[in-house]
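user: Here is a favour to ask of a fellow structure person. I have my own habits and do not want them to colour yours. Could you put it straight underneath, so I can go through it closely?

assistant:
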Amino acid sequence: VQLVESGGGTVQPGGSLRISCAASGFTFSTYDMSWVRQAPGKGPEWVSTIRPGGQRTYYADSVKGRFTISGDNAKNTLYLQMNSLKPEDTALYYCARVNPLDPTDNDYRGQGTQVTVSP
């Protein structure tokens, strides 16, 4: 299993960014996938989860209405569209595969991509 994030960078407050996660080594279309972020000096924070097929998505209250999770099964890629970014969104964002035996846990994660929101 391999998860490789890309697309991070520095953006001004109010700006937008789309990050991606290329998945390989498993059948991407059959797993719940999540985005998790970790800000400097803080613990991991769950951001969003998408069910297989994309029919159901879930968001943390802190990003609801601003972020959109999606997946492209043909490309085995997970996305996170982030709009109206705030300085408090600054963090290392990584994608994770939800453990099918324990939905409260992730069994694989990527190395992450840094998102910095700064004037």
Q: What stands out?
A: The mean pLDDT is 96. The chain has no helices and eleven strands. The CA atoms of residues 17 and 70 lie 14 Å apart. The longest strand covers residues 17-24.
